[in-house]
Amino acid sequence: MSGKEGKDDEGSRVKLESLANGIIKDIKSGKNPKFVTAARKRSNIVFDAKNGYLRLGKSVEERDFINVAQSKRFMQTIAIAAKCHKFVKENLHTTIRGLFYQLKYSLGEDVDENIFNEQSESNPLIEDLEAGLDVTRENLNLNANRKGVLAGNMTVLDRFGDEMVEIDCSKQGRSGWAIPSDVDNDIKFVNVKAKYCIVVEKDALWQRLNEDGFWKKENAILITPQGQAARGTRRLIRKLADLGIPIYVFTDSDAWGWYIYWTIKTGSINLAYMGGEVATPEARFIGVTMSDLDKYDFLNKLTMNASEVDLKRAQEMLSYEWIKRSKEWVRELERMIKSKKKLEQDALQGPRLTFVGDYIREKIKNKDFLP
Amino acid sequence: MSGKEGKDDEGSRVKLESLANGIIKDIKSGKNPKFVTAARKRSNIVFDAKNGYLRLGKSVEERDFINVAQSKRFMQTIAIAAKCHKFVKENLHTTIRGLFYQLKYSLGEDVDENIFNEQSESNPLIEDLEAGLDVTRENLNLNANRKGVLAGNMTVLDRFGDEMVEIDCSKQGRSGWAIPSDVDNDIKFVNVKAKYCIVVEKDALWQRLNEDGFWKKENAILITPQGQAARGTRRLIRKLADLGIPIYVFTDSDAWGWYIYWTIKTGSINLAYMGGEVATPEARFIGVTMSDLDKYDFLNKLTMNASEVDLKRAQEMLSYEWIKRSKEWVRELERMIKSKKKLEQDALQGPRLTFVGDYIREKIKNKDFLP
């Protein structure tokens, strides 16, 4: 298992305490206390070609206590660290919104001016802490938004209070198992039996395939991120890939669908500080593709007009180095730009509802996917 | 159990066939075939004060085949009915997007001009069918969007292929059971043991309460619609109320939170044609309320500024007859308008994360809720 497997709550508690102890030591020895974190600005985001994902470069940022421009941010960062330390010790979780209210509540009593007036002030500081201490917000007991559903031959052991509950992902009916925001702490995946994992952009198509028993017939794991994948879903896909399970992504052939795929594969600019933990460079793109129009004639009457956003985004993607080097992707993007047409995964239901599964089967059988 | 309990797939198949047979009969006897449906325009939406929900009035609309202005819509409606009949016979489900593509596919072959160019053309016609035949789209095998999660002492028997799977909603860990879009067909709720059901606007607060084991300690059913409640979640709340379980709703004290509550309680203008099936007039509003500011002093420093939308919406709500008659609601709305402040449910985490559950407990103990 790659990523921060060892970085559990205990690890983050130790890191928060050593941050605090360092500051106390600095103050006692008359030094200017400071907090150092990796710079998350655009110019410090690099595509790691060797490993195939976006990560931060070497540039760092410092928050000094004795610096008029930085002392407020320094204090805010330490206040956040103190709250997270409390949450970890209490073994209770909240969201960054809950954290914001705790800060507003407790600082409001002693300090005349509210230290945080808007949550937009506290959010980037949490990312500072994540990057600076090399912990995830999940390990600071901060839940991120969750989204995404899974079905397949796999069992989840999840903590609930003092017991571990067993959730059989092959016995969740039409619902599927809802992927939590944290898939690293107090949770285990056992009996994972699958030839491959298919990630389906839209919940509607997931339901279609689930109703057909697709994952059961194929011995596959069927995931939908329900649009752009949340952190928990990206981490889970990474973990499945670590188990040697091939990952196939199935989205619309449009700007949004491609963005979903590339985010799963290479990570995203926003989460570049998490690098390889939320990226799955092994993932392959199964479709729908513009070249499906040559393979499946009926799709030609089911295209939609590409929007301005689609066309602009396609043009932009052509400038990315990790896309430029793939002939297949360049061909896809150029075909959309030229034809001004796009294709949705839902269109595969045109001839018959069950065609969607046949399409995936055929693609996988013929190894017909994009890098 | 109220609502369309008898209106299963079989029932909708019979209704679709009798619609078709009626049209064939009309044509054979030289009559002008027509389709009659309840008018869904604003002027035909009434608040049923006796029952406490929004429903359609008596006015109807006709689509005539021999009428230049209506014949296209007539043909489109029949095409949709034919597709739904096929889905019901095949026992396969899709979405209205999938239906749209099937129409585009099959009509494109025989007819020169595409009958449906945009999905916006087919959506209102599906509602025509629902209202005209008195069936739900779920019974026409069309899945609506799903959203919403549940935990509690309750077992779901859900069909998956040929078997019924048993899902224990008390053993779903941090995930909860994902509420499907259809909670009426091929699904059963057994061993429902709960003193009450609490519906929590935000997933973040649901997770907070779930982590505390709130539903277990209280023997409650804990639902989050994850924002505005989807059709499936509204139907499920209605079904729980039918079992005699009191329903309490817990949202932000702002325009959006109030809208979520009133939609659960009285139904919505968009779904007025479904009337009492998606409304739970028995529901009570637990908070957060503007008057909580008098009861919990700390909340006064955790208010946020009301937005223009909040203030406008509050003013609008004061004009609704079903709100006007409640002194408590008028007081709430006027207090927001006067103070220009609002309050979020997340703010209850200010003093300590576990306060949220204590707040609900105290409210229920003191029967401190709004009608």
CATH hierarchy, class of the largest domain in chain A: Alpha Beta
Order of helices and strands of chain A: HEEEEHEHHEEEEEEEHHEHEHEHEHHHEH
What is the third-level CATH name, the topology of the largest domain in chain A?
Answer: Dna Topoisomerase Vi A Subunit, Chain: A, domain 2
The total strand number of chain A stands at 17
Classify the secondary structure makeup of chain A into a structural class.
Answer: alpha/beta
Please name the CATH architecture of the largest domain in chain A: 3-Layer(aba) Sandwich
Number of domain units of chain A: 2
How would you describe this protein?
2 copies of one chain form a homodimer. Chain A folds into 2 domains: 9-143, Arc Repressor Mutant, subunit A, CATH 1.10.10; 149-365, Dna Topoisomerase Vi A Subunit, Chain: A, domain 2, CATH 3.40.1360.10. Chain A has 13 helices and 17 strands. In chain A, helix 10 runs antiparallel to helix 12 (327-339). The first copy, chain A, has 371 residues and is α/β, with parallel strands linked by helices. Helix content of chain A is 40%, strand content 18%. In chain A, strand 8 and strand 9 form a beta hairpin. The first copy, chain A, has helices spanning 9-28, 71-90, 96-110, 119-133, 203-211, 214-218, 231-242, 255-266, 292-295, 308-317, 321-324, 327-339, 355-365; strands at residues 34-38, 45-48, 53-56, 60-64, 94-95, 142-143, 149-151, 155-160, 163-168, 177-178, 187-190, 196-200, 220-224, 247-250, 284-287, 304-305, 341-342. The longest helix of chain A has 20 residues, at 9-28. Chain A starts with 8 loop residues before the first helix and ends in a 6-residue tail after the last helix. In chain A, the strands form 6 sheets. In chain A, strands 10-7-13-12-14-15 form a 6-stranded mixed beta sheet, with helices on both faces. The radius of gyration of chain A is 23 Å and the shape is globular. Chains A and B meet through strand 5, helix 3, strand 8, strand 9 and strand 10 of A and strand 5, helix 3, strand 8, strand 9 and strand 10 of B.
